[in-house]
Write a structure and sequence with these properties.
The chain is mainly alpha-helical. Helices cover 49% and strands 7% of the residues. The protein has 18 helices and 6 strands. It starts with a strand and ends in a 28-residue tail after the last helix. The relative contact order is 0.12. The structure holds s-citryldethia Coenzyme A. The site of s-citryldethia Coenzyme A (SDX) has 21 residues, from loops.
Amino acid sequence: MANKTVTLTDNSTGKTTELPLLNGTCGTPVLDVRSLNKELGCFTFDPGFKATASCQSEITYLDGAKGELLYRGYPIEQLAEQCSFLEVCYLLLHGELPNEQARDEFVANISSHTMINEGLRVFLDGFRYDAHPMAIMTGVVGSLSAFYHDSLNIYDPEQRMMTAHRLIAKMPTIAAAAYKHSIGEPAMYPRNDLSYTGNFLYMMWGRPTEAYEPDPVAEKALDVLFLLHADHEQNASTSTVRLAGSSQTNPFGAIAAGTASLWGPAHGGANEAVLRMLDEIGSVSNIDKFLARAKDKNDPFRLMGFGHRVYKNFDPRAKIIKKMAHKVLENYGDDPRMELALHLEEIARKDDYFVKRNLYPNVDFYSGIIYQALGIPYNMFTVMFTIGRTVGWIAHWMEMVSDPKMVIGRPRQLYTGHGPRDVPSLKKR
Ligand code: SDX
């Protein structure tokens, strides 16, 4: 892949080095700087990794300028239209879409892992009733490593795939149990006669005292939302999973680290923050006041659900979710916050501050409107993101761990602290 080179010269020493410029299948080429320290005695410096490629991957491709998202080469728009979430899970894990037989086998496999160890139910009871469900997810997912010792051999492809199936299957069960814990109701056992998403809805809204059948509109909407959230190349939480996993740690621990990272409001926690922001704005007449705050560098307020590190155009997922929100609200009744969100987007997209900085609605801007319409409480929104993103995290973990050239991730730094100095005696401090 190295077609061209870039010549770097250190003007202070006159030393020169040629660095390979590597091209992928599509997208921005990368400058291979692995020899830089040896050749020129320096590191690259890129806080936040805004211009750094951390790895090579075949899973997902984003074109930020075009607003394009491909899973294994397939456009997200076509996948959302034609495939189920579990078909896309198969695609992300195996690299190709399943035929009917492979799909049915995969679905049956996932269904066979939906139960969680009874010991985990006791573990869940230890949380305060008002614990944030993402705190529970982070804790319980990490504790899976205490229950599945046979998934400790990360170099066994079968155990890696078993880990993937277990995580994809158990996330909805853990998520629904976290919700039930917060409302003091008994957690529901999975029903494997239902679809992946139908089973999640059953575990969320079902009760041992009465029959429950999932609403097909909600089932379909959630299936598409899980699919749209499934992967997004080297975002913060996926990079967290890769860095944690690079130490050869237990995969459940690495996924727990990714879960914790996703919780942040700058990342997956934004979907919950958007609805809280819309509630705070309250009416169209307040939009200007809040936009002024978003533009004020002295005000920590940000327009939640807006902006993206990669997309400098409309997030393609946001376009699909915005359309879906209209359809879901037709079914469940209008929500004034949709009107407010539409106005906010329209006004912001005409404002020079947002236009100049290419700030568009991202995946989190409209998703909460749908979750809310389905009756899902705000503090469960990022849990929904977690259910969808788990397959992406584990696909990247598998891609990294199966690479014989995997090395532990260990960035360097620019040190600006004290130089060497002697410890003064206590009397002199
Ligand atoms: C996700 O990486 C992924 O792929 C993530 C994700 C995935 O699927 O995994 O897509 C999911 O995390 C989506 C993003 C959800 N977060 C939010 O909606 C929170 C609000 N957005 C911002 O915090 C911000 O846009 C980020 C964090 C998303 C991106 O931040 P960057 O890339 O570091 O951009 P930046 O902070 O350098 O912003 C550039 C400029 C700055 O102003 P100047 O210094 O140039 O004057 O734009 C401003 C920022 O202040 N800006 C915003 C803004 N986002 C950026 N100003 C007001 N409101 C905002 N939302």
